[in-house]
Specification:
The protein has about 300 residues and is of the alpha/beta class. Helices cover about 40% and strands about 15% of the residues. It starts with a strand and ends in a 5-residue tail after the last helix.
């Protein structure tokens, strides 16, 4: 199965490349700038036709949440128009698209985990452009899977888990917000789920369950709880660790508003695809072990 994935350095694309190395039935073609530029959608269809994949994974995005408040046009170009062009290009050759989206499409005001049919209400430019991207992807290709995920971390790139390990090397105490809740999600688990779903689609004649799904780590916590667990894992390995000081969001102002509740219900994905992510603690411990080179 040939899978075209957008981007070179993103957490999901790098995880897909790594996971596919253990499964020769998958061939990952990762394409990013300058060959594929989501801000220049006019060249996307020709590239997709040249690769002729069995499925397209739309993983690249404008993810600088705070910077998007100052660059709304650029965020819109990548997250909405670029995603639409990629989805339409996949449709033009008759193949499905899997589009990675975000918990930021919700307001964060709900008192329970969000399900796919809940009303959206993004509170940031990033969330609004990702929501428009969802709509454009769905309208441009009937064979679409949109996976909303949250709190992504991995051994690759920049992410919260790696930041906590880095800060613990020089600090005894780290202040982390305690009033935002969500599902920490390993990009390695996202990659496993994407490959599993892609196989289901390609091996099922007349697959009829296209649409929006929530895909996140099993279990939830707040940011301070996540940080505490990361440091506990590091301490067990004899690595530097820090004490976590709980603070409120108001004490850590950011340009873009974050959802207070990012929890996502993954029941639909589990039911349709018969796949459940590992617990967030198991997956994050695995990544900590790997980053600290203490896998034994």
């Amino acid at each position: 199965m040939k899978i075209l994935v957008t981007g070179h350095q993103g957490q999901v694309v790098r995880s897909l490349i790594e996971r596919s190395a253990y499964h020769p039935e998958y061939s990952i073609v990762a394409v990013g700038r300058p060959e594929l530029d989501l801000e220049r959608p006019e060249g996307i269809e020709a590239l997709v036709r040249a690769v002729r994949p069995d499925i397209v994974v739309s993983a690249a995005a404008y993810t600088a949440v705070d910077q998007a408040e100052d660059e709304p046009e650029r965020a819109h170009a990548v997250n909405a128009l670029g995603a639409e062009a990629l989805s339409a290009a996949a449709a033009a050759i008759g193949v499905p698209v899997i589009h990675i989206s975000t918990d930021y499409v919700f307001s964060g005001e709900a008192e329970r985990p969000y399900i796919e049919s809940d009303p959206t209400g993004p509170q940031s430019v990033y969330g609004a452009t990702k929501l428009e991207g969802e709509r454009r992807v769905g309208a441009s290709n009937p064979k679409h899977l949109i996976f909303r995920t949250a709190w992504v971390y991995s051994p690759f790139g920049k992410n919260f888990l790696k930041t906590m390990l880095r800060l613990a090397e020089t600090r005894n105490e780290i202040s982390v917000v305690a009033d935002q809740w969500g599902n920490p999600t390993s990009a390695l688990d996202i990659a496993d789920a994407v490959l599993h779903a892609a196989t289901n689609i390609c091996n099922t004649s007349n697959f009829a369950e296209y649409g929006i799904y929530h895909l996140a780590g099993t279990g939830d916590t707040n940011w301070s709880g996540f940080a505490t667990y990361i440091n506990e894992c590091a301490a067990r390995l004899g690595a530097p660790s820090a004490k976590i000081k709980e603070i409120n969001t108001s004490e850590f102002p950011t340009k873009a508003r974050r959802p207070k509740n990012s929890r996502l219900s993954t029941e639909r994905f589990e039911r349709i695809f018969n796949w459940r992510a590992p617990s967030w603690k198991d997956s994050s411990a695995t990544v900590v072990n790997r980053l600290l080179n203490r896998n034994g």
